[in-house]
Amino acid sequence: MIKTILIDDEPLAASLVAEYLAEFKQFEIVAICHDGFQGLKAIQQFQPDLIFLDVQMPKITGFEMLELLEEPPAVIFTTAFDDYAVKAFDAMAIDYLLKPFSADRFEKAIQKFLAQLQTNSDPAPKEGITNLAEKSDRLVVRVKNEIKIISTLQVSYFEAADDYISIHTSTGKYLKKMTMKSLEEALDPTRFVRVHRSFILNMNEISKIEPYERDSYLVKLRNGEQVPVSRSGYTRLRQVLGI
Questions:
Q1: Is 138 helix (H, G, I), strand (E, B) or coil?
Q2: Does 130 score more than 60 pLDDT?
Q3: Is residue 127 pLDDT above 50, yes or no?
Q4: Which of 1, 39, 83, 243 could form a disulfide with 33 if both were Cys (CB 3.0 to 4.6 A apart)?
């Protein structure tokens, strides 16, 4: 049996997917969830082969939920908004069903999944999940067994840490699996500036900028910490500061 989880905050929408899926006897629905937190717990518990995932949900979005998974299952997105189509396929989704969708359109999505299942024993998307950031004023991270939502207003700076980003805030440091490039694209460019290959600063936290070594600088933050600034980073910093 193909273990399947439905994640949608609209009970009627989840019921419709369940009704359509009942026509395909090789699929077993092991859980129906109505927000991202429930979905995350169910995925960890049941290890499904496929999930049907809404995008806009309370608490955390479908994309934010996927970012928290080390090895996400195959995904078919179901949403009423077509704005997320490109992003969904960037996440290597099997398909993207725009609500309301017909039984015929649903069957095409199922056939796509089954075809990929035959050609690849592990159809789950392995690339792109850590790069799903969209313009947002918050970040979702896992802290042990809990999920924490961090406002970007709390962040002093971000630091590259191998395959992760270290998020420095007034309440501590948090790790998120994400690239600096995707993070930079997700942040407000009037508030955050990449001043170094490994650092992105919150402009509101800057206390002083001082020369350091040849063609480089140091930024002193309001909390007393210091962050290196490269020559190109200094140019970007001056542009944003208007100096």
A1: strand
A2: no
A3: no
A4: 39
Estimate to the nearest angstrom the gap between the alpha carbon of 65 and the chain centroid.
Answer: 7
Integer Cα distance of 134 and 81 in angstroms:
15
pLDDT at 171 over 80: yes
The CA-based angle 116-94-148, given to 5 degrees, is 130
Which residue in 5, 46, 1, 54 sits closest to 29, CA to CA? 5
Higher pLDDT, 34 or 86: 34
Residue 148 pLDDT greater than 70, yes or no: yes
Distances, alpha carbon 243 to alpha carbons 193, 227, 235, 236, 239, in Å: 15, 19, 10, 10, 7
Q: What is the DSSP letter of 137?
A: S
How far from 176 is each of 47, 155, 228, CA to CA, in Å? 22, 13, 21
The per-residue pLDDT for range 1-22, each reduced to its tens digit, is 999 999 999 999 999 999 999 9
β partners of residue 177: 164
Distance of CA 53 to the CA centre of its chain: 14
In which residue ranges of the chain is CATH 2.40.50.1020 found? 136-241
**2-126 in CATH: which number?**
3.40.50.2300
Mean pLDDT of 97-106: 94
CATH of span 136-241: 2.40.50.1020
Which tokens go with 78?
């179901």
CATH 3.40.50.2300 domain locations along the chain: 2-126
- Whether residue 123 is preceded by a cis peptide bond, meaning omega within 30 degrees of 0, is no
What angle in degrees, to the nearest 10, is found between the helix axes of 103-119 and 11-21?
Answer: 60
Backbone angles phi, psi at 145, to 5 degrees: -100, 15
